Amino acid sequence: MTIVRVRQHVNPLSAKYQEATAAPDWAQIYAHRTRPLHLDIGCARGQFLLAMAQAWPDWNFLGVEIREPLVIKANQDRDALGLSNLHYLFCNINPSLRSLLLPQSLQGASIQFPDPWFKRRHQKRRVLRPELVADLARCLQPGSLLFLQSDVLEVAAEMRHLVGEHPDFRPQPHGWLEQNPFPVPTERETLTLKAGQPVYRCQFLRC
Hints:
Layout: H1 26-29, E1 37-41, H2 47-55, E2 60-65, H3 68-81, E3 86-90, H4 93-100, E4 106-112, H5 130-139, E5 140-150, H6 153-164, E6 169-171, H7 187-194, E7 200-206
Parallel strand pairs: 1-2, 1-4, 2-3, 4-5
Antiparallel strand pairs: 5-7, 6-7
């Protein structure tokens, strides 16, 4: 078994992460290109999507992650299972989303347990910013859902506020969700709940 050692934190504002990632040939990525596509931002080791791709075989899944060694290993795990509806991509999603995906090409998206960047001077590094919310609104089809969750109330509340400020998103429902709408939890979610700690979840409709 290969152990992948990576840095826990990567500064997304570093110059080397500011160049937009070009879109691959999606027809070469997915066996059935026209299936609905779900984007998971900050997918880490990709175990959530690895399970989702098997639970929902009629969907395509795309995981993006800024730590390249995790992406390499995640794609190896995918290949070992022979999954043709799953791909992991190394990129910084903030400068890259517009170049990666066409308008209204997503039927779902999620940001789960993003790096909280607790220090005040580092909070500008948090993944969800107004510009990314606008890009998600552009890429999501009307009627699609954006799912957000964190075990840090401040981070979850900030994400909920940022998305709620955009006119194209409507909370579904208002307030926090008690249950995860997906059939598969993330690794962090499992560990948090096992420790008896709360998870703050919310969901928005692209209207």
